[in-house]
Amino acid sequence: METLVLNKVVIVGGGTAGWMTASYLKAAFGERIDITLVESGKVGTIGVGEATFSDIRHFFEFLGLKEKDWMPACNATYKLAVRFENWREKGHYFYHPFEQMRSVNGHPLADWWLRERPTDRFDKDCFVMASVIDAGLSPRRMDGTLLDQPFDEGADEMRGLTMSEHQGKTQFPYAYHFEAALLAKYLTAYAVERGVRHIVDDVETVGLDDRGWISGVTTAGHGELTGDLFVDCTGFRGLLLNKALEEPFVSYQDTLPNDSAVALQVPMDMEKRGIRPCTTATAQDAGWIWTIPLMGRVGTGYVYARDYLSPEEAERTLREFVGPAAADVEANHIRMRIGRSRNSWVKNCVAVGLSSGFVEPLESTGIFFIHHAIEQLAKNFPGPDWHPAHRDRYNDAVAHVMDGVREFLVLHYLAAKRSDTQYWRDTKTRAVPDGLAERIERWRVQLPDSETVYPYYHGLPPYSYMCVLLGMGGIEVQPSPALALADPGAARQEFEAIREKTQALARTLPKAFDYFSGMR
Q1: Bridging pattern class, strands 8-12 and 34-39
Q2: What strand order describes the sheet that includes 339-341?
Q3: Residue 455 CB coordination number (10 Å)
Q4: What is the pTM of this model?
Q5: CA end-to-end span of the chain
Q6: 111, containing H or E segment
Q7: Could you read off the pLDDT of 156-171 as tens digits, one per residue?
Q8: Burial (0-12, 13-18, 19+ Cβ within 10 Å), 24
Q9: Which residues participate in catalysis according to the annotation?
């Protein structure tokens, strides 16, 4: 006899979060799950989620999609790193790349760099990607082969593992930039083709039963939609979780004050401009500006704190930063809710995306949060007894990811040497999350490792912390004393090998724009 299961899911809200959820659950459970997605035709996609972690490839692999299937449809490009400009001082930049830190005789190469200082650029000395990005190159050759690393679409090394299970085993060398609205449109077709019921309508009320669980949502034109599990993808509104179920929101504003953004989608001749295959975060007087190169346009926006800057000043600064190309482009002003819901799974409602939580998009974590939440939902999908263990595991995983990312982002501001405005001076005196101050004191004398960073999975490996500390320049760090007794010969050989590999790649890799043009 078949075991009864919960199989009727109602997703409220579309956009990237809703359609990623619908697509993933369909890929995971097929016809054994019934999914309805209802979204308003009036609510647009917030355009701050166009850059990703490299782990997003697992999402597309899980759906059985190859890059040529979806990238051209979403104007997508590769992202090899985050480039930080003007955080240490004006004119300075460094990269936080998707490339594992090499190790020599038990010490990370960054530790040897502190001792040897081959040049003043830790990123170019320790990683290949920094020079590849500066040259505007694609990580894939025109025939599709990838650098010199053992990765391929469909390879066994990426199958069946969640992001948390995969971390530390390998590091894929790039992530993606894409237009969030176009990805949502592409996944709409993918999911509907596989049986997801799509309703465009406005949810007017959320019904609760005598236990306080959601019994259904009533729409303007389709009446009541009932289900077993309801997924809240309604963005900052939190229509189901925060409003109907009254789950409290835990703010991060005391440690991350940026609460606003103004965004522009600027058409550009990318062949003439060239594609720098990274997300750029350029520090400003009261925040920072993101620059994301896509095929046909650049996505850009100023993330700032209203305590220091007005929306009008922010928009004017952003337009001046972009130049004449931004003159006739409509600006999108966004108020950001920074923090997380106390619990993202309450009763029979699971929040995914902005309704669950959000931090500013400094390290492109918005899509990562969605992907991670969906993986955890599929992994902990409830049975008919609604055993609380599944809910609790989901809530713990989601909370740890967001709290860990919060701590990592706070480190950026603490470590930034810049102090030329009140905004930047205040970043050094603001409250920090519990445990971070103690960790920083340890990192001053021993670079971060897996035992001294935030102790739960949050998507950021120790080398990411090293990059921030070495690049920002505001926290003094020193090499391990053990290196004074070690032979530096092998480390010097590794630095030389990186230089040689960089030169070889410059001769064989195509320009990023040329590669993407060939894909279309």
Answers
A1: parallel
A2: 249-251, 339-341, 357-358
A3: 12
A4: 0.95
A5: 50
A6: helix 109-116
A7: 455 556 665 655 556 7
A8: buried
A9: 79
